[in-house]
């Protein structure tokens, strides 16, 4: 039960985190993800031996759903990245937010909630459970992106991210339902074990499209990438966490998890290749337009996400190895450089690369961390990033369109290399401007994360054998079968090596021409005018116009109009159903019964209500209707209901009469004759439809199965002899609780209105008294 305990521990740590942050012990909070990292690391021996960890708990057995968690190479990799990088981010944030101690409790609470949601999503072995955590990541990321909610841009970006990812979540929900029904199970491991049958199912195309669509929105694939750069308004620790190992990688995780079931399907590979290629090109081009360090990194993240998705769509046996290696590489260098960008902003007050120069002498340790991350990002030896880039080139060379694949890869990697130079070289090289003379290296809590991540990329590059076996387990989970490979820095003079040299030269040229290219691309306003961001704004404006039109049309402010529309809709639906399904029927009548006098009296009382000249007379007539209904219950063998009805009617009449004396009700009917005829027609139509439904019900054979069940179980299971009370309190407990809640809320609202009226009256009286005193 280790996995279950670890996931629950992350959520249970949220209140503890808030308390620690309030107590000023923010640095201690980093121990929580660190302990989780250590616990997950203890699972490595079993995974390295080719095994997996399964845990199952009963959840909704009637629907075949269980709380199931599973750790294999892929899910354990994500768990280690989430907790490991999370430790660096948590420690970093403790100092990053030191000038805003009042914000720390909420920030760390949201961040811990997000950590738990991510762990649950990657470890869940049940599609429905995974979907629950999936949506929780959207909600918690909404809180993190919009953390500085006093800023309009933060509110806009958090709303945009939520709408895009939740919209994709709806598509994923439909895909999950279809996939579970097609496979006959919602267990992911069972679905993957019988992937061929699922792929051959008639619903397979719909499932593939819906799953890919959901993953694309979460992993910011074009055209859903618009929310990712806008999310840079979030605090830097959030940006580092979301972009390196968590939020944007969750869609990649889902595609990698489902890949063994659909990798032979042409639709699956085509969608992944198209989405990945477009995203890579989009990120590369848009990165060249930016000067803000975080936005440059954000668009380079798009390049990496596109590459990861493209690798999943390629049939090469090393594609899964390249994907797993680059996943680790990107997580390390992207978190490192985001944290460096945050340090630069923290010390200089700006992230504008066109202004930043010469910080190396003032911040030597930060410069060292930046160089480590930039070398890995640029794919330079002896870093693990070089090995990952070589693997990508080796896979692209054998792609269906090798010239196109290699050309896009070289261009994207060159842009990534130039971006790394802008962050790590331009910002720190040269002489320091006077405005930045006071900049200095921050405390170790902010430097630990980028240094540890940068050094890790270097160590794993020099000694890749330490991670080779684990990558093999990850690749096996992604491809569904074992792959033989060997990670090394030197493969000889291969085509991939020459492509790396070409990348270095093109990257250096782009670095030198960065400002000129950026200036030219900034003048291409078509990218903004016709891009997905503009389409999103137009769509949101359209929704607002439609909502305003609907409001003007529907919300008239007239209660009679609302009631009339509601009743007409009900009458139309009932009448159409009776006609379409031929449901109208009349029961057999056995002659006149003396108790028919009660329904006749009910009809007369109802007419009296309609014909009443004053509110009080109408109220009394309505009470007579209630008393007559109690007689119906009494004569039909339900004395308890009759007594309840009688008590409620008596109490209601007394209370309403007391209210009438205090409220300014109109004594005359203000409706015109036309309004009265309309209301009469609606009332008659509603009464006739209800009568036809009741007659149809009475004419059908009585099914006593439910009543027999209540009779048989009320006493032994609910320990009650009054069946009606047992039904209300036990069998329909949630329904009753809901009714009580609605009544309570209504009472609270009424009390608030009355209190406000009394307060207004007192204020008015006080004002009049003051005016009188001044006049005297």
List keywords for this structure.
776 residues, mainly alpha, two-stranded antiparallel sheet, 74% helix
List the helices and strands and how they pair.
Blueprint: H1 2-22, H2 31-41, H3 44-48, E1 53-60, E2 65-71, H4 73-96, H5 104-123, H6 127-145, H7 152-183, H8 188-193, H9 195-199, H10 204-218, H11 227-230, H12 236-244, H13 247-262, H14 266-287, H15 293-313, H16 319-348, H17 364-378, H18 384-397, H19 402-426, H20 444-462, H21 465-479, H22 495-512, H23 514-522, H24 526-529, H25 532-554, H26 559-580, H27 597-611, H28 615-635, H29 639-660, H30 673-699, H31 705-718, H32 723-731, H33 733-775
Antiparallel strand pairs: 1-2
How would you explain this protein's 3D organization?
It is a single chain. By secondary structure, the protein is mainly α. It has a domain of 391 residues. Helices cover 74% and strands 2% of the residues. α27 runs antiparallel to α28.
Overall pLDDT metric: 89
| Global structural class | mainly alpha
Counting DSSP E segments of at least 2 residues, the number of strands comes to 2
Strand content: under 5%
Query: Low-confidence runs (pLDDT<50, min 5 residues)?
Result: none
| Whole-angstrom Rg | 34 Å
Which of globular, elongated, flat, extended, rod-shaped describes the shape? elongated
Q: State the end-to-end distance.
A: 82 Å
Count the DSSP helices: 33
Largest sheet: 2 strands, antiparallel
Helix content: over 70%
